[in-house]
Amino acid sequence: MALLANDLLLRALRREPVPRPPVWMMRQAGRYLPEYRAVRAGSDFLTMCRTPALATEVTLQPVDLVGVDAAIIFSDILVIPEAMGMTLTLDEGVGPQFPRPLRSASDVSGLRRVDAETDLGYMLEAIRMTRRELDGRVPLIGFAGAPWTLAAYMVEGRGTKQFAIAKRLLFEAPATAHALLDQLAIAVGEFLLAQARAGAQVLQLFDSWAGALGPEEYRTFALPAFAKAARIAKQAGVPLIAFAPGGGWALDEIAEATGADALGVDWHQAPQDARVRVGNRAVAFQGNLDPCALYAPVDEIRRRAHAMIRGFGRVGHVANLGHGILPDTPVAHARAFVDAVREWEWNAVDDATSSPTLATVA
Amino acid sequence: MALLANDLLLRALRREPVPRPPVWMMRQAGRYLPEYRAVRAGSDFLTMCRTPALATEVTLQPVDLVGVDAAIIFSDILVIPEAMGMTLTLDEGVGPQFPRPLRSASDVSGLRRVDAETDLGYMLEAIRMTRRELDGRVPLIGFAGAPWTLAAYMVEGRGTKQFAIAKRLLFEAPATAHALLDQLAIAVGEFLLAQARAGAQVLQLFDSWAGALGPEEYRTFALPAFAKAARIAKQAGVPLIAFAPGGGWALDEIAEATGADALGVDWHQAPQDARVRVGNRAVAFQGNLDPCALYAPVDEIRRRAHAMIRGFGRVGHVANLGHGILPDTPVAHARAFVDAVREWEWNAVDDATSSPTLATVA
Q1: What is the ipTM of this complex?
Q2: Beta strand B89-91 with B317-321: parallel, antiparallel or unpaired?
Q3: Would B3 be classed as within a structural domain?
Q4: Residue B107 sits in a domain of what CATH number?
Q5: 20 to 30 A Cα–Cα from B291, which one of A25, A60, A130, B92?
């Protein structure tokens, strides 16, 4: 393996000095790219996930076409429930579904224990193949869904606005919920470990439905399982990013419980508020431009990208969107965002005009 | 008109001493009640809204059947866009839709100016009829949707997870967005004024999709229009409750801008955090039990209701859910929540064990 030609991401995650923040975009290998749609026209989404050559091809596209500083392996968070024995379908326009969702304690106890190497080998192979193709240009990020988010999908059978059926399980049958979350925490943590061993140089845990829970349930159910998965994954010795959209109020608790190197910040939260929330903990941030801001004219995108960079400050920031890029985003606008970050130079900025860093907030 | 036999709501909104908080539930006239479903079986939702006798009947049901301390007139926030000339449909299982959503500046300039008395007279008549039927037992709440929430529906045509089309308008055509929001602010404010003149004793403004916007867009677009509507409504001289779910981070700014007497708090935010957020502003709170908590056993519902009451403290709290009650909530559980609030006695509580009130937080 070649040394990394571009290690900005790793340096920012370690909170080392960088001339500018690294930049990548959640869902950067996605439908806004015509080249992605061309691959997608020949294969359904799940086939792309399961075919390492296809997953590798689309993983590389944003590196080649948009100039991001990191690749993230193309896959889906729902591969774990599928490996546990659930049937996963993905119909056009409907989104991923489990036609036979979990609805009882016996459904939960019937789930298989996952062996990442045998059950999810296709993703590990995609990671190995992508690492070879990247040849050290930029680091590769592996990822998984966090236990609560996976549990919410598994119980509902599909994404919903409120996740009321999944929450009903927490309130009505907390012991069953804990059993499910604990089993998922182990599967998720071990899967991330396997991804790092296959070559992922950074790991990200997505608790996409953190915002479906109020503080008491988040602390009782979601956070302990998130933390357990994170602690297992941390054994890999590579940096871990924890992203819990809708959980901005809990950034300090998430940092504490997971030991993550960086916290994803969604677009609901001002960068300065995220910094204030974690106090003087030595943690980096990733985020957080509203994906809808990429609808704005390119001058406005540039202004907002720079405001975001100033907002997070010069230490420990990975520039990203605050949620996945939307399919109807103009490619030129995605590029304008990436370019705006790439042109930034901290050394050219008068320190007096920069926004608070940890040192000034603490 | 009779004097109010139960004026707990008005006293709590004025932050006067009360032996216990008043309690009502958002969507309390709704599908969880068999008696509501019986009315609904004979009429579609919009017909119920437009027929004062039916609206009055279901408005009274939770007062009679569940024992809440306030009635809220049965209606829908989308009656204003309809009065502006948009076609509103409501198909079973799909939710309200505008088949011809606003997609251009000329669509916006083609909207009619609303005259509440002539265009929305059916709701004013329902308010007058309900006041007669209530005969002073409990106060009646009138309401309307806030401009941003209405605009989001009008542009999207229906509820969505992300409101990306509506947000695209803000980013791509801010002048058109401001024109729409301003026109809505006037219509909403005047409609609330008319409701108060028809007999509504309290008014509530729902900015249900506040959470779809990040801080910059919320401050630029949603909040000024919300505030304009609120300031017009305040001319009625009755208490105003401002509820912006997902906007908990902005409670202080909402209090300042709207001059509302009370702020709704959604279930994402701990009661103490809401208190801290507004500092020493003299504002009451309304909320905020997670509607999903009504799935819990009744003992647990009681425990959580009491924890919520302690959390908000004894001055200026209206007990409520943090979002609308869900259709599959057992009636006995809704009653358990209401009963738990009704049995509370502040005077029986040792002050030393009560949670922070404004005085101790400030």
Answers
A1: 0.91
A2: unpaired
A3: no
A4: 3.20.20.210
A5: B92
